[in-house]
Amino acid sequence: MGAVMGTFSSLQTKQRRPSKDKIEDELEMTMVCHRPEGLEQLEAQTNFTKRELQVLYRGFKNECPSGVVNEDTFKQIYAQFFPHGALPCLEDSPRVEFLLPSSPPLPFCLVDASTYAHYLFNAFDTTQTGSVKFEDFVTALSILLRGTVHEKLRWTFNLYDINKDGYINKEEMMDIVKAIYDMMGKYTYPVLKEDTPRQHVDVFFQKMDKNKDGIVTLDEFLESCQEDDNIMRSLQLFQNVM
């Protein structure tokens, strides 16, 4: 979740790109532009005030003048804020318990990687159209920042459920775990062993797969996460971001 929020909370204050990119901006504006729903409607559908939505929309438009974000642009924006691999965690920094349920606290923070950004983009692109509109962005952000425990956990389950069949299998979890560990990269301490992702997946399923049928259902996921103090604490990390 730290990786999710680090990028998009920064969009509130990031300035428009330098004038040398004006040509690229003009080319982007030649695309079909998307006009979002009225702020009053979005205010009713999210947990943001009209003023907060205005701030978020300005940041979104600065980065995405066309009003929509495709996956390549999403990855580029993501990389601007997390360019250096993993860095040591400060005492109060977001850790990985939310993204890797059932793990003990680990001594590093989450940062960007292209593979994880791909999965994250798919979680934001709820209609699977290959683009994320402002409405998609603020809906997800509203859940992650101010949603209920169940809403946040359902969103995370959807992130893990790569093929959207309503279950998490070991292959999907392995792909997500590898993507997260790839973000940690060479900067992790202690250095990760080659089989660490597989070990983590095994721990995940040992805890989450209540009936031992090889898949994790939403109900199993919700129950297991709510039994984990580390996960429940991590859900509160971004309550006051805005």
TrEMBL record:
One GO term of the biological process aspect: regulation of potassium ion transmembrane transport
Every EF-hand domain range: 112-147, 148-183, 196-231
KW DNA repair (keyword) present: no
GO cellular component, one term: Kv4.3-KChIP1 channel complex
InterPro entries in the cross-refs: EF-hand-dom_pair (IPR011992), EF_Hand_1_Ca_BS (IPR018247), EF_hand_dom (IPR002048), Recoverin (IPR028846)
A UniProt-annotated Pfam family: EF-hand_8
PROSITE patterns: EF_HAND_1, EF_HAND_2
Keyword annotations from UniProtKB, A to Z: Calcium, Metal-binding, Repeat
Record CDD domains: EFh
Molecular function, one GO term: transmembrane transporter binding
Stretches the record annotates as Disordered: 1-21
Listed name of the protein: Potassium voltage-gated channel interacting protein 1
